[in-house]
């Protein structure tokens, strides 16, 4: 995406001011990888860098007021990219995600500060509040961008069409209102976050607001029952950090034990084709040439001999453990640790050991 | 109970062909179907209607060919259908489309439907915007990304819905709610039914009502403020497919072994045998050493 002119003096989004703001709305949710916020920040930083000194990168965090002052230091975990400013919006209704709460809070903050551009990750919740906010305030809105850039009078965006079969570049004209963009998660693929927050980087200037939002509870009958973590059989295989997979050697009954072990380990359940074909597990759980390719940090293959059709799906696995009674099973050549024996028995004992320890501690 | 469902005709993604040189999408090849998520929305609406009684109104915005999706809706069991169209609507973005749909639903002499169903996103642009925007224009609460829907018995006789939303990485949010409400449905919610042949034939004969959205009192699109213009369409660079090439230094036997292993790199394997208790100990120790437990 090319930007021709870096001087933003006449740009529509500056509105005659000397400094405009580019917001990244941070999202927090159980199960939501923090990298989703990081990649939006990184992408937004690049856009802001096109207009040095004129476009300021700001992050927006919505949350419930903290009960104790000690917690005040829970500034979001910024890594690599630190915004220049952090707006913290506190309201009791923002303790968990609600459409009305987010729309009301952000409408208030937009009226207060009027940024040039608002970006957020196109997560399920991001795609819930962003279009509604755009419709309510009449903002130009571009959904699920792969890349975006600001021109003098327009917003350029790259988007996927027809399920990724084509890419389209669009131009959205900017008006006096800020534009709203959701960024397709996983597009930039920031490396997973490990270690400590950015050291040596300047911390953002934190501005906290506690507005009294006058949003009426639109649907008083809407009752939140809770958020459930996925069971071992439901974790998405592609995103799983640990996978325990079973094959012919595990058997129909063995899969229940295998799933119990996976749950204990916080891992996802995978399977070879034999297991899915026989209906021991859901077909979505199949790993290999006709199934999914996975890239976990830990892969435990139980009762899987290691045919090429299966192992081609685990090329990216970092640590592989194989349990099989057959000494000549090809899976052993690919494993870091090989255990010769019946997978069900070994898993049962290992589960006991793990449980004893967790009780002992 | 009155239910409305908003449908869209969209090309089947597998029928999409983009010329790699010109970047032009070959529209002649499109196989137009009822968008998958919308079909699930329709099915969910039908199931509720069958369970609780009431009427189902199916609405679409699109050119003449879009009559097809309304015929599908009729065959599956919708009571009334209507198509909105104006030639200028080819350029409308999702926000304008949502405004037109809202104007049409407002135009009914009676009040708004109790429940409105939409697909979460279409197979072509996938912006997922029309549902939430429509809810905003109608002033209704919304629940998006629905993957579970259940009507619960309620002593007051009112409809009580237990809704499951899809969040990231397999997480689920459960909600309890009552109409009026707008729901956007994910395409895994249900398996849409096949209409019976007589119903299908009857739907082919039906006349489809067409309405010009610009004639609706509550709809005044800003013709100047087009939402987005397309600059260019191109095909994505294909994802590199990594081929496993065996090391030419190896003997033929080993090379075949490498091909057979599917290109997964060989590792230094520590192979252990013994009674299962011991092996379990080893496994747990290994997992701890590597920091997995």
Number of strands of chain B: 13
**Strand count, sense and closure of the main sheet of chain A?**
9 strands, mixed
Shape by Cα distribution of chain A: elongated
Strand order across the biggest sheet of chain A? 7-6-5-8-4-1-2-3-9
The figure for the number of domains of chain A is 2
Radius of gyration of chain B: 26 Å
User: How many helical elements of chain A?
Assistant: 7
The fraction of residues assigned to DSSP E strands of chain B is: 15-25%
Mean pLDDT of chain A: 84
Q: Name the CATH homologous superfamily of the largest domain in chain B.
A: HUPs
The proportion of strand residues of chain A reads 25-35%
Largest sheet of chain B: 9 strands, mixed
- Which CATH-level-2 architecture of the largest domain in chain B? 3-Layer(aba) Sandwich
**Helix-strand pattern of chain A:** EHEEHEHEEEEEEEHEHEHEEH
Poorly predicted spans of chain B: none
Counted up, domains of chain B total 2
Q: Assign a percent range to the helix content of chain A.
A: 10-25%
Predict the CATH topology of the largest domain in chain B: Rossmann fold
Structural class of chain B: alpha/beta
CATH architecture level-2 label of the largest domain in chain A: 3-Layer(aba) Sandwich
């Amino acid at each position: 995406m090319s930007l021709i002119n870096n001087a933003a003096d006449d740009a529509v989004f500056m509105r005659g001011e000397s400094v405009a703001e580019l917001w990244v709305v941070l999202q927090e949710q159980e199960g939501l990888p923090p990298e989703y916020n990081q990649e939006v920040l990184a992408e937004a930083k690049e856009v802001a860098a096109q207009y040095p000194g004129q476009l300021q990168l700001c992050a927006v965090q919505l949350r419930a007021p903290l009960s104790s002052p000690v917690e005040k230091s829970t500034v979001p975990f910024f890594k690599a990219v630190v915004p220049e400013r952090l707006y913290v919006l506190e309201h009791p209704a923002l303790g968990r995600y609600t459409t009305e709460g987010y729309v009301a809070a952000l409408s208030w903050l937009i009226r207060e500060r009027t940024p040039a551009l608002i970006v957020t990750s196109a997560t399920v919740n991001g795609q819930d509040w962003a279009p509604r906010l755009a419709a309510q305030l009449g903002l130009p809105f571009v959904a699920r961008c792969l890349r975006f850039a600001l021109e003098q009078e327009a917003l350029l965006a790259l988007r996927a069409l027809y399920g990724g079969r084509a890419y389209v570049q669009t131009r959205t004209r900017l008006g006096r209102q800020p534009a709203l963009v959701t960024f397709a998660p996983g597009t930039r693929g920031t490396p997973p976050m490990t270690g400590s927050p950015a050291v040596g980087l300047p911390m953002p200037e934190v501005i906290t607001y506690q507005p009294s939002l006058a949003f009426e509870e639109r649907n008083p009958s809407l009752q939140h029952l809770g958020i459930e973590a996925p069971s071992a059989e439901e974790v998405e295989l592609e995103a799983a950090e640990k996978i325990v997979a079973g094959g012919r050697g595990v058997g129909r009954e063995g899969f229940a034990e295998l799933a119990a072990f996976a749950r204990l380990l916080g891992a996802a359940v995978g399977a070879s084709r034999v297991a899915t074909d026989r209906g021991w597990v859901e077909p979505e759980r199949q790993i290999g040439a006709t199934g999914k390719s996975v890239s976990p940090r830990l892969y435990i293959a139980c009762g899987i001999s290691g045919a090429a059709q299966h192992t081609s799906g685990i090329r990216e696995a970092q640590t592989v453990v194989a349990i099989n009674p057959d000494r000549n099973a090809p899976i052993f050549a690919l494993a870091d640790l090989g255990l010769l024996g019946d997978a069900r028995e070994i898993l049962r004992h290992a589960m006991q050991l793990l449980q004893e320890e967790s009780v002992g501690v | 109970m009155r239910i409305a469902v908003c449908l869209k005709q969209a090309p089947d993604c597998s029928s999409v062909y983009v010329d790699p040189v010109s970047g032009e999408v070959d529209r002649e090849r499109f196989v137009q179907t009822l968008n998958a998520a919308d079909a699930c929305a329709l099915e969910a609406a039908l199931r509720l209607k069958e369970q609780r009684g009431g009427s189902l109104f199916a609405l679409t915005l699109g050119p003449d060919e879009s009559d097809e999706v309304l015929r599908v809706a009729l065959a599956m069991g919708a009571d009334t259908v209507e198509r909105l169209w104006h030639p200028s609507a080819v350029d409308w973005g999702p926000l304008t489309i949502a405004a037109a749909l809202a104007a049409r639903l407002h135009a009914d002499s009676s009040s708004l439907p109790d429940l409105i169903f939409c697909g979460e996103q279409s197979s072509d642009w996938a912006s997922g915007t029309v549902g939430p925007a429509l809810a905003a224009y109608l002033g209704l609460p919304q629940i998006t990304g629905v993957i579970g829907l259940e009507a619960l018995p309620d002593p007051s006789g009112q409809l009580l819905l237990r809704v499951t939303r899809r969040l990231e990485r397999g997480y689920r949010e459960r909600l309890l709610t009552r109409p009026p409400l707008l729901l956007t449905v994910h395409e895994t919610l249900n398996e849409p039914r096949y209409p019976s042949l007589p119903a299908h034939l009857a739907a082919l004969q039906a006349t489809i009502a067409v309405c010009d959205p610009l004639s609706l009192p509550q709809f005044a699109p800003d013709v100047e403020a087009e939402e987005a213009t397309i600059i260019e369409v191109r095909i994505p660079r294909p994802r590199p497919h990594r081929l496993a090439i065996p090391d030419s230094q190896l003997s033929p036997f080993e090379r075949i072994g490498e091909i057979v292993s599917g290109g997964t790199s060989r590792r230094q394997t520590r192979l252990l045998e013994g009674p299962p208790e011991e092996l379990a100990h080893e496994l747990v120790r290994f997992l701890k050493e590597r920091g997995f437990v």
